[in-house]
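Supplementary Text 2. Reproducibility record for the structural model of the 221-residue chain.

All settings were left at their defaults, and a single model was retained for analysis rather than an ensemble. We include the record here because the model underlies the residue-level annotations in Supplementary Table 4.
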Amino acid sequence: MSRYRSELDNARAHIRSLWGVIILLSGMMAYAFYGWSQAPKDIDVHVPPDLSGGAHLKVDEIPAANIFTFAYYYWQQINRWRHDGRRDYPANIYQYAPYLTPACQARLTREMQWLASHGELERRIRALFTYPGAAFEPWRVRQLGPDAWVVTLDAVIREHVAGFEVKETWIRYPLRVVRYDVDRKSNPFRLAIDCYADPGPAKLPPPDQKKPSEKASGGSP
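Retained model, structure tokens:
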């Protein structure tokens, strides 16, 4: 009888230990499911344009080349007046508003109004090109912090009226780019141009005179 009771006690102890293991595993599974449910559904991985030498990618880290390409492409589109600057410039500001901060939109709107009042929009066609020899280089993107950069963009602006060239300007834009995660549907890059960093746009010498360095001549365009 004593032996029977001993075996029964051992069985009950074993069952209790199994219940303990079950409860522990259930708790671990519940914690794992909770962690999985709280994990982000999407992650951002920015791939640099040149992978010939390989790349070490980190989540949410944006390569300098991507920042430069973003700034150049959208600044070029904003400054593209295909038919008539009086209509095209405000239309561009509206169309590319998701890629501009509100402060930059307001600044460009004021600039547009000034140009219109001085007769520099009507019937004008404008195009923006890369300044010769001014493709991406690491020094052209300066990081201000985890969420802001300054892109040094050297460009040529040409304007025509009725087929005649009326303006050709060589200019350096210090464009400020910031993280801007406000509308992922309209702006999947989650970046925005915040117009100009100090000291603002500056004139460059004509391409046949001198290749621009990190320092440009002063003066407004």
